Amino acid sequence: MLNLSRDIHSLTDFKRNTSEYVKQMKETKDPVVLTVNGKAELVVQDAESYQALLEVVDRIQTIEGIRRGLEQMAQGQGVSAADAFAAMRQKFNISNE
Q: Is the Cβ–Cβ distance between 42 and 13 less than 8 Å?
């Protein structure tokens, strides 16, 4: 979770004290917001935390895709698994043995 008193700094300060910020990010796993002329411009994060964020996004996208598919099936817009497999077997000339 972003801590406003600890995690928002100027880009200039970050450049001067990069090693301290890297240590802080590795310890806290929190990103640092960097400002230019008083406005937020960049967010810096350690690689492990960024990977974890990407994995969460992937899970959310998967869940959303499943939800949409279930809604489509409920509205009669989908095809049964048996019909989908039959269409794939026909498309790729796979026998049903």
A: no
Are the C-beta atoms of residues 72 and 78 closer than 8 Å to each other?
Answer: yes
Report which residue type is found at 33.
V
Rg over CA atoms, the chain: 24
For the chain, how far is it from start to end, CA to CA, in angstroms?
55
> Is the pTM above the cut of 0.70?
no
CA 63, distance to chain mean position in Å, is 13
d(CA 7, CA 21): 9
What is the pairing mode between strands 8-10 and 39-44? unpaired
Q: What is the pLDDT of residues 48-69, one digit of tens each?
A: 999 999 999 999 999 999 999 9
